[in-house]
Task: structure prediction
Amino acid sequence: MNHLLVFALLPDLKIRLKPVALLFGIMRLTERRLVVAGFSVHAFTALGAITGLLALAAILDGRIREGLIWLIVCQLLDGFDGPIARKLDVKTYAPQINGHTLDLVIDYATCVVVPVVLMIELQMLPPGWDIVIASLIFFTSALWFARSDQETEDFWFNGFPASWNLVIPTMLILEINSSWVIISSIVICLLQLTNLKFPHLIKVKTLRPLTLSVAAVYFLAMTALSLEYPTGPDALKPILLIAPIYIISLMIWRTFVANKGETGLEASNMSAVRIALQLLLGAVLIYTGITHLSTSRLEFQAQVPSWVPFSADFVVLASGVVEICLGVALASLQYRRFVGFATALFFIAIFPGNISQYVNGIDAFGLDTDQARLIRLFFQPLLVIWALWATAAWPLRAKKEQGELHE
Result:
């Protein structure tokens, strides 16, 4: 029995003794080189920590152009180490270091921490929003990196893969308005918590030549604009939109057209347009909910009708909390019709505030004329329709649809 046990353990023992065998020169030359190559690949991956530190130091020192270039170097290291590791079979020849864990550690630093510091240092967010958005990005990205279902078997990411090293520099170079930075950041944070399928640019075989071509064009444009930041050629800036549009298109195709049964979402009541509008509405509600609790608190108080049996401040705070909860519920894509009806009822419930603002001639949110306040009233029914249609709560066109409030 003992000799059978030893025989069964030989493969694992062989792997564990490889570094020892290497030191004493008793391993075949070819295999020895593979072991050295395996550990060299791990060292190559770990270089990302150093380049990330160099990017961070440059950003904190105000050398933004240099910081952007170091971020691009981080992306290149991250793009090349995986294929090399698989080619050299590092799991077999350098198993003492877990390449996947090492990659996650490096990626969280270079794809999340450093770009967020860049966003804060360059004041891409309004005062008071930097810590809120940074915390949300750190929180949702940490959850994504800890997911046990990060990738499907055909190498599509579940949820947005926390690539803030692409998102934030792109918004910076395109000079995106701070309000849109907030909304975009919230939407992307929520996307990290979904099961929407985003492509791994290297591994996914579908349209791989086109994907690699789009990525190459994007990185060339980003590199050229970073080298001359902030005076880079305007003609290159539209190119930075090609990659996001292409990735979103692939995500929509993979999630809602190809293998639609895998996500559990039927294309008939979860079209690409509806899910986009539902996520956008969720982001808008989270954004306005936060402003209820912070920057626009006094302005919202002015809209509370005098007949409401609670203090104006309490109503504003309570409605802000409700808006945030509804926004998160919309972004979760769960119980869609129920959440849609609840959101529509909320829009109806707060409509008297808009009427009160018009009747009493209250100036708030730039509505300083009766005509502007009157026009604002007509937007409320559109919000109700938006909530119902985006969540497939309306129209109810089939018996099956009517019975699926939990989808």
In short: Confidence is low (pLDDT under 50) at residues 1-11, 20-27, 260-269, 397-407.
